[in-house]
Design brief:
mainly alpha, about 80% helix, about 0% strand
Length: about 180
């Protein structure tokens, strides 16, 4: 079995297992992300040696804050122990980290592949203002519009409760697809 297939198998099995016990995990202080970290340590180079260090580095630099924050701010334990305002603040901050991490991962890449003056110019104009700034405005606008439409649909009882998850998945697909069709700068 090649390494990529092993990663997919382990990831799929881990997600299935965590999903099967997700309700139980929500009621206990050990978050699913900690169990996933332990699993990564077990299959990593220091324990079983099943994964190469190049794959672990990729996992480390990938922004995961919303995933890590989710068990902290959702479920009965969080609702009992954290005020709603604090839970929303943590969720916002974790989501904002993804956009910010992109900036700090991309700058060193540009500095390695272009002359410094060109790298900083590209980073400021293209990465910061266009890719992050305009994408943020687009995402906020699309999210607000979709939220308003969902509220109207729920008030008029046009949408089934089972379709709420489908609605969020479809919204992410719409945003991704529509965002990719934006004109190149």
């Amino acid at each position: 079995m090649d390494e990529f297939s092993l990663i997919l198998a382990v990831l799929g099995g881990l997600i299935l297992g965590l999903g099967l016990w997700s309700r139980w995990l929500q009621e206990h202080p050990v978050p699913a992300t900690l169990l996933a970290l332990w699993a990564g340590m077990v299959i990593g180079p220091r324990a079983l040696g099943l994964l190469d260090p190049a794959a672990l580095i990729g996992a480390i630099i990938t922004a995961t804050d919303p995933i890590a924050a989710s068990p902290i701010v959702t479920g009965p334990v969080a609702e009992k122990n954290l005020p709603e305002r604090l839970r929303h603040a943590i969720s916002f901050e974790s989501g904002a980290n993804d956009g910010l991490s992109y900036l700090f991962v991309f700058l060193p890449f540009l500095l390695l592949t272009r002359p410094p003056h060109e790298a900083f110019s590209h980073w400021l104009l293209e990465t910061l203002l266009w890719e992050v700034g305009v994408a943020t405005l687009f995402g906020v606008g699309l999210g607000v519009a979709a939220g308003k439409l969902l509220q109207v649909s729920e008030r008029r009882e046009w949408i089934s409760p089972h379709w709420r998850l489908v609605y969020t998945v479809a919204l992410s697909l719409l945003g991704r697809g529509w965002g990719e069709t934006a004109p190149e700068r």
